[in-house]
Amino acid sequence: MPDPQPTIVLVHGAFAESASWNGVLERLGAAYDSVAVANPLRSVAGDAAYVQDVVRGIGGPVVLVGHSYGGMVITQAAAGDTSVRALVYVNAFAPDTGESALTLSAKFPGSTLADTLVQYPVSTGGNEVAIGQDQYHAQFCADSSDDVAALMARTQRPITEQGLADKLTGDPAWRSLPSWFVFGDADKNIPAEVHRFMAERANPRGQREVVGGSHAMTVARPSEVAETIIEAVRGVS
């Protein structure tokens, strides 16, 4: 008896939240089982463990989809998990062993994220960082409307400095699982050259580069993102 169609598990990254997948979920519709996870954004290992808990709760095959830092998380979470059928990277980090979000974003020039960040200490230790509200639109979602960008800036989820600095441990899941990549060539957080580098070494089954796409394509370009996810589901079903 064939496996059921995989459930799509959507993992947001830093400076966003699970509702950033709403447009993608609408386009996936009732034909696809899907869930948007509230990523804790505390540490790669801890966040990956949480996603693994979600996957175990689903109890069947899944396709993991990560946006931005969420790519770090799904790469770690999928390692050795036989229920994960594919990985989809949406303007996302696809790290190799020992790489962090910080090291990858700086691998090629072009990221302007650092100059927009504000930070503050947290009681559990270290600092959290967020994008300054007055700079959020231009930095994160330049191809979104003013109203959407203002709402996203107010509802963004900060990430710990530890999460950004944490390195991938173990073999990256994209080395053994089929992957798909979709990213915008106007991403100001992760330069397009970094996206192309990560995609090339992962040898994905599908790769889509969206002209003018910002970092927040889950919000601004949900159709292109959904199309890539559907390709992945069909490719492993």
Number of helices: 10
Structural class assignment: alpha/beta
Tell me the Rg in angstroms: 16 Å
Succession of helices and strands: EHEHEHEHEEHHEHEHEHH
- The proportion of residues forming helix, as a percent range, comes to 25-40%
Main sheet specs: 6 strands, parallel
Write down how many β-strands occur, each being a DSSP E stretch of 2 or more residues: 9
- Provide mean pLDDT, rounded: 97
Shape: globular
Poorly predicted residue ranges: none
Give the termini distance in whole angstroms: 12 Å
Question: Strand content of the residues, in percent?
Answer: 15-25%
Sheet with the most strands: spatial strand order: 2-1-3-4-8-9
Describe this structure in words.
It is built from 10 helices and 9 strands. It has helices spanning 22-28, 44-58, 70-77, 101-105, 133-140, 146-155, 161-165, 192-202, 217-220, 222-236; strands at 7-11, 34-37, 62-67, 84-90, 117-121, 127-131, 159-160, 179-184, 206-210. The radius of gyration is 16 Å and the shape is globular. It is an alpha/beta fold and 237 residues long.
